[in-house]
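Ligand-bound model needed. adenosine-5'-triphosphate.
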Amino acid sequence: MGTTNRLEATDPGGAPRGGVVISGLTLSFGRGEARKEILRGIDLDVPAGKITGLAGESGSGKTMTGLAVCGLLPAGADLGGSIRFEDTELIGLKQRSMNRFRGAKIAMIFQDPSASLHPMLTIEAQLVDHYRHHTGASKRAGRERALEMLGLVAVPHPEAALRKYPHQFSGGQLQRIAIASALMCEPSVLIADEPTTALDVTVQAGILRLLRKLCDELGIAIILVTHDLGVMSALADTIAVMRMGEIVEHGDRYEVITAPRHPYTKALIDALPESGARSSDGTES
Ligand SMILES: Nc1ncnc2c1ncn2[C@@H]1O[C@H](COP(=O)(O)OP(=O)(O)OP(=O)(O)O)[C@@H](O)[C@H]1O
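Prediction:
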């Protein structure tokens, strides 16, 4: 597979082009005695052309980290520290400026693909409108782009797919369409939050291979959020293990899986089934 990392150059300021650098990220909700600390100082480099995995138990803060990067945190979130995207500090950006990045330069896909697609609109309406909103392109150019993206994610019969509604697709096809929608504006960063958890096991591997392809061929920086260390060990380049709002370990996936340093990581790995998660060639066995 070719690696045309169009965004991999490093700018003189130090941030990798197209990637995200998170430093000292804190997140809390509420005040006084009701204050709940969710993220307690996260440092994480998410480089272009790599899949950075966020693993860890339920409630450890994986989703919140992804939502923070995307600027999609729930109301009342108190965010501190830094999230740099190329030359821009995202924390503290006004909503209007953040809207320029979200959905365009930084896109997100969710466990339930229908969460990012409107049930009452055709695929064409949503993909094309989204693209035109961000780029100002013509309807025709938007349609061409939509066909191209549906082809890229291997949705069969893209022309016919454009005329359909979300409920007319299977879960796996719909996740591909959600990915196509996320790719419309050529994002540099894609946050994939449990993208295969809701899918039939027979279609999971196809979606994971697609994410790997997008990362390798388009140079997209991917944050893969999953509680599934098996999926992580097959797909991610590096694995960050989260626990109670902190990253307790982050390193090359082989090192994290084969020589975990933190007792919590060891416990997670010991809990894995014997087979299917620790293949060394990047495929699930
Ligand atoms: N709106 C909110 N107000 C207060 N706390 C919240 C809010 N949303 C989420 N939380 C809390 O933030 C913490 C981290 O949640 P998060 O969804 O990031 O965990 P996670 O690691 O992704 O877990 P899972 O694998 O279950 O999705 C949890 O304790 C959750 O209860």
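Residues 29, 36, 38, 56, 58-64, 74, 227 surround adenosine-5'-triphosphate (CB under 6 Å).
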